[in-house]
Design a protein that fits this description.
By secondary structure, the protein is α+β, with helices and mostly antiparallel strands. It folds into two domains: 62 residues, Winged helix-like DNA-binding domain superfamily/Winged helix DNA-binding domain (Arc Repressor Mutant, subunit A); 82 residues, 2-Layer Sandwich (Gyrase A, domain 2), CATH 3.30.1360.40. 47% of the residues lie in helices and 21% in strands. The protein is built from seven helices and seven strands, in the order αααββααββαββαβ. A five-stranded mixed sheet has the order 5-6-4-3-7, with helices on one face. A two-stranded antiparallel sheet has the order 1-2. Strand 1 and strand 2 form a beta hairpin. The longest helix is centred in the first third of the chain and has 17 residues. The protein starts with a helix and ends with a strand.
Length: 155
């Protein structure tokens, strides 16, 4: 793929236009959409573009940054519908269950939140483990999660 900055910029602008207009579920779909517009791209270049643009995959759809909103608590508004259950597992581990495919997006939002009580996250397809340094930190985290995700079941 060309590394010409003007071509890369044009391709990235087109990616954002496509994501705002169409529900895109796979990177291959973006390659096809770009090809139909006369722009050649590989899946690997699309992958880099999506990362650099800050595009998130929420559920089965890629969302442009304007849809995801800025990092911070406002970002959680979009993700709230995907969080199903919050539970504590011992004094420093919190488990968050999400809709299938949403765990990574929620975990990234948690990682980027800057919340001091979070030591780190591990996510799978529908489950996130959130580590805290102490039980007190866990209590602070759970209080935030209950506020941000009020519809999630708690145990």
């Amino acid at each position: 793929m060309p590394t010409d900055p003007s071509q890369q910029s044009a391709r990235r602008s087109e990616i954002l236009r496509i994501l705002k207009k169409y529900p895109i579920a796979r990177q291959e779909d973006l390659v096809r959409e770009l090809s139909e517009r006369g722009m050649d791209a590989t899946q690997s270049s699309i992958s880099r573009d999506l990362k650099d643009l800050g595009v998130a995959k929420v559920g089965e759809r890629y969302l442009a940054p304007q849809n995801v909103r800025a990092p911070g608590e406002a970002r959680f508004e979009l993700l709230a519908g995907f969080v199903r259950h919050v539970a504590t597992a011992g004094p420093s581990l919190t488990v968050i269950r999400t809709s299938t495919g949403a765990a990574q997006s929620v975990a990234v939002a948690l990682d980027e939140s800057g919340w001091r009580e979070i030591v780190g996250t591990i996510s799978g397809d529908d489950t996130i483990f959130v580590a805290t340094a102490s039980q007190r930190q866990q209590q602070l985290l759970v209080a935030r999660l209950e506020k941000i995700f009020p519809d999630a079941r708690r145990s």
